[in-house]
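Mods, move this if it's the wrong board.
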Amino acid sequence: MRTKLYILLSLAAMLISACSYIPEDEQLIYVKPAPVERSVLIEDFTGQRCVNCPNAAQEIEKLIEQYGEDAIIAVGIHSGPLGFHTNSRFYGLSTDLGDSYYTFWNLEYQPVGLIDRGAPTEYTAWGTLVREELQKSAPIDINVDVTPGDDSHFDIYTMIQGVDGDTQGKLQLWIVEDEVTAFQMMPDGTRNDNYVHNHVFRAAVNGDWGEDVSVQEGYSTLIDHSIILDEDWNPEKISIVAFVYNNSGVLQVTKAKLLADVEE
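Not the wrong board. Structure tokens:
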């Protein structure tokens, strides 16, 4: 009996050994994901009663023209003492969440911006900081796809791929609207009631500070969300800004139009 058992174990070992052997020219070799271009997030804390804020908006447009709209992702967060909430006479762009962000970062003046979640700085320094951030490598890649549903309902699918090392942080999704007409105090002290605001922060999709996310190099994770737009927002001008951040700052950011097939 022991002899038969020995023979069976020997045969099993031979089979396992044979199955585990793979010729060197047929073995799978890990290939590191290709590098992705870095994009930069500008959080522009602005206000309709801020006379210098149009200058910061112009600086953003210059940076977009210089580096491209895929490289520079701006969000105008109307907030703080110079922000304005809608009243019976005028349309305001400030939000309660924008005010919370302004308070959280201990901001004391406007315009002021965070470049990839670095220290708050004046708009005159944004060009240098953006150039420095663009030279860094991105450890992840982010892609956003939006599927329209009924009425004002949209499904958002965010794909995060690990590119360089394992990444842990938070995924934040924001709703942003372009070409919003509302009053703005101008640098010369006048009020422009037909000022066109771009990159206007509207709301957060997945909580005030996003949600935990973890992705390994060479792997991807897919996260889905649903939103219903406010009736005052124009879907044709809405975009989703998606970024991942941790204690070191913003790791990568991207922007996707809600209706990608709309002609400009």
